[in-house]
Specification:
It catalyses: cytidine(32) in tRNA(Ser) + S-adenosyl-L-methionine = N(3)-methylcytidine(32) in tRNA(Ser) + S-adenosyl-L-homocysteine + H(+). Helix content is 32%, strand content 25%. The chain is built from 13 helices and 13 strands. The chain is globular, with a radius of gyration of 20 Å.
C-alpha cells in the first residue's frame, strides 16, 4: 500500500467533522514534535534542548530508520507520490459540492466557525511554542519603544499569549481579531488576558476597510497563520489590501498556511470539493491549499517576499506505523515603501 493511501481515513460523513478537525489541529501543530518529546505513559510534554537543536535538520537518509522518530524534515516526494496525489484530486472533482450548498458555506462562514469554537472551546488548541523557532522575531522585541502586532485569526489565543508571556518590551501591544465572536470571547476570558497590552475584537480581514482601532500604516507585524486558506479565493485581494494598509513601511506579514497536496487535502472524500484546491470540511469550514506561486501573486504588489517557501514534513505515528506527509507554505513579507507600492 502506498504512503498516501495509507494515510487516508475512512469515516462516515456523520463522524468526519470532529475527527477531521482534531487531526488537522494536532498535525497543524506538529512542529511541536521537534521541540518537545512525550513522556511515555504520562502524556505530558517535556521540552528538550536536544530536540530544539535538531529542529529543521532531521533528514531521513536511511528509509529503514523512518519509524525511529516522530518527524522528519524536508521530506521530498518522489515522482510517483506526486502523480498519485494528482489522481486523488482528480477523483475528488468528480463529486463536488452542489451550487446551493457552496453559497451556504460561503455566506454563513462565520457561523460555521462560531459553531466550531462553541463545540470545541480550546481543547484542540496548544500554544504555538514552535513560533519561536519559525518566527524568532516575535520573541526578540526588546527595549521600551512602542511595538504593535496584529494577529488576524487569533482563534483561542494560542499565538497571542505565548508572545505576551515572553516579551521583554513593556510597550508591546497586540491586537487579536477573529472572524468568530466565540473565538474572541475565549481570548477575552483567558486568565492571562489584560486590556493593558491586548485588544481582542471581531473582524473580517476581507472587509472593505481596516479596523477602527488601528491607524493606517501603524503596525510593525501582522501574523497570518492558517487564515488565508479559510477564505474564498475571490476575497484574497481584499485581505492583502487590508494588510498593506495597516503595516508600516518595513513592517512584516508573518505567514504560514496549507500547501498543495498536504495530507489534509488528500484525505477529503466525496462532496467536499468546492473548487480547484478549495474544499469544505465536515463542519462547514472552508480550506484552500496553496502553492508558492499563488502566494507570490497575492502579495508581490505591496510586499517584498523575503521568504516564500514550501515546508515539507513527514510525520510518523510509530505505534500505528503510519507515514503522514504534511505540506505548508511559510513566508515573511516586508511592506514596501509607500511610494514603491502605489
Amino acid at each position: 500500500m502506498s504512503d498516501i493511501k495509507q494515510t487516508e481515513v475512512i469515516e462516515d460523513n456523520k463522524n468526519e467533522s470532529l475527527k477531521e478537525k482534531e487531526e488537522i489541529k494536532i498535525n497543524e501543530e506538529s512542529n511541536i514534535e521537534a521541540t518537545a518529546e512525550l513522556n511515555e505513559g504520562t502524556g505530558k510534554r517535556k521540552k528538550t534542548v536536544s530536540s530544539l537543536d535538531k529542529f529543521g535538520s532531521r533528514i531521513l537518509k536511511d528509509k529503514s530508520k523512518v519509524f525511529e522518530y516522530n518527524a522528519w524534515d524536508n521530506a521530498e516526494w518522489d515522482e510517483s507520490q506526486e502523480e498519485e496525489a494528482k489522481e486523488i484530486v482528480k477523483k475528488q472533482k468528480l463529486n463536488p459540492v452542489d451550487e446551493e450548498m457552496k453559497k451556504k458555506y460561503d455566506s454563513n462562514a462565520n457561523e460555521y466557525w462560531n459553531e466550531f469554537y462553541t463545540k470545541n472551546t480550546n481543547k484542540f488548541f496548544k500554544d504555538r511554542h514552535w513560533l519561536r523557532t519559525e518566527f524568532p522575531e516575535l520573541f526578540k522585541i526588546q527595549g521600551n519603544e512602542p511595538f504593535k502586532i496584529f494577529e488576524i485569526g487569533c482563534g483561542a489565543g494560542n499565538t497571542v499569549f505565548p508572545i505576551l508571556e515572553e516579551s521583554k518590551n513593556p510597550n508591546l501591544f497586540i491586537y487579536a481579531a477573529d472572524f468568530s465572536k466565540v473565538a474572541v470571547n475565549i481570548v477575552k476570558n483567558n486568565p492571562n488576558f489584560d486590556e493593558k497590552n491586548c485588544k481582542a475584537f471581531v473582524y473580517d480581514i476581507t472587509a472593505d476597510d481596516i479596523p477602527e482601532y488601528i491607524e493606517p500604516h501603524s503596525l510593525d507585524i501582522c501574523i497570518c497563520i492558517f487564515v488565508l486558506s479559510a477564505l474564498n479565493p475571490n476575497k484574497w485581494e481584499n485581505a492583502c489590501n487590508n494588510l498593506q494598509k495597516m503595516l508600516k513601511p518595513g513592517g512584516y506579514v508573518l505567514f504560514r498556511d496549507y500547501g498543495r497536496y498536504d495530507l489534509a487535502q488528500l484525505r477529503f472524500k466525496k462532496d467536499r470539493y468546492l473548487d480547484t484546491n478549495f474544499y469544505v470540511r465536515g463542519d462547514g469550514t472552508q480550506v484552500y491549499f496553496f502553492t508558492t506561486d499563488e502566494i507570490k501573486n497575492i502579495f508581490e504588489k505591496y510586499f517584498e517576499l523575503e521568504q516564500n517557501s514550501v515546508d515539507r514534513r513527514l510525520i510518523i505515528n510509530r505505534s500505528r506505523k503510519l507515514k503522514m506527509y504534511r505540506v505548508w507554505i511559510q513566508g515573511k513579507f516586508k511592506r514596501k515603501p509607500l511610494e514603491d507600492a502605489e
